[in-house]
Design goal:
Length: 96
């Protein structure tokens, strides 16, 4: 569980990030979850973009992905969302 100070710090880092994944009309698949899991283990914080052709709302997809990955949804803005999960083996970010 993140504090508001930690969320603010992660949001500030996410502002300058480009999305590393895009979710299209196929929605969230097992393959996508596996790929997101691998990237979260290396980077801890990622930005995901939901394309306009996706039938589900970005908010719903963010919650689904966060739940499936045991990750925190840091921010949902427009068609993008930020996911954070602390890595036990590969700590990249030091939270305040």
């Amino acid at each position: 569980m993140l504090t508001s100070k930690q969320r603010a710090y992660l949001r500030s880092l996410g502002n300058s990030m480009d999305p590393v994944f895009q979710i299209g009309k196929g929605g969230i698949t097992e393959e996508l979850i596996t790929q997101l899991d691998n990237v979260l283990e290396k980077r801890e914080l990622i930005k995901v973009r939901v394309l306009k052709n996706c039938p589900e709302l970005p908010e719903e997809l963010a919650e689904q992905a966060g739940h499936a990955l045991n990750a925190d949804v840091v921010q949902k803005i427009g068609r993008n969302f930020l996911l954070y999960r602390e890595s036990l083996e590969n700590v990249v970010l030091e939270l305040p």
